[in-house]
Amino acid sequence: MFSARSGPKSKRPVKVFRDGFSQRFDEVVGEEPLEIHISQGGYISPFSVTMRTPGNDFELVTGLLYAEGFIENRRDIAELRYSCNGPDGQDYNVMVVHLREVRREVERLGRTMIASSACGVCGKSSLDDQITLGKKVVANYSVDADYLLTLVDAMRSEQRYFDATGGVHAAGMFDLQARRLAVREDVGRHNAVDKAVGYLLLNGLLSKVAVMVVSGRAGFEILQKAMVAQIGVVASVSAPTSLAIDLAADKGITLVGFLRGGSFNVYTHADRVSTKTALESR
Question: What is the C-alpha separation between 213 and 233, in angstroms, rounded?
Fold first, then answer.
């Protein structure tokens, strides 16, 4: 049901002139479009074109469809394959998804334009659909500061494409014992989240996630995906946006920002996090 062969490259070498003089080769991150079509009830409808770093494409599509309410688990996908219309028999930039059951109307709720690597909700007809899709997150656990402060380095140690190119974001999923469940990279931070969620969904591990860490800012699209996946704590190396804070507050998500250099800010539902001061007083 889920199979792939080699296709577009996640990175490639390019010639550069260092400081304008010395010639060398450098690795740059791959960015290519992935066109997604959904087959429901015998009809194939265009859904989205998203700019992504090639690699883990099945996870990306699975995570995206889950985040937008087209699937609830891997059993909802009957088949996931690349298009057969490419020059060598497969087009690795076109994905066809066959769903067992119609859960949402693709034509009305699908995307109507290209979603760039910088935007996770571009082309959506209504943000209200995205906000109301997820239920309030019920996470009956807490994490302490020492735990949170280990996660960025744990995610960073798995960022091989960032090491090679310096041009990708990452999303890391961790359980309550700070074990890495998944780390995925992509030129788009929202794609990295979709890839990580897709991997966990395909492998029956999504319910084990306690904290999601993202390498860039925490925007609305990141919190929306956490809301649907019922992840109680989202931590960002950079800043959150105002809409992300509002969504986290409303949906019961603990939002942590500026998780770096031995400190962090907690913006919502701080009762789920033990502060450093509290830890030191024990």
Answer: 9
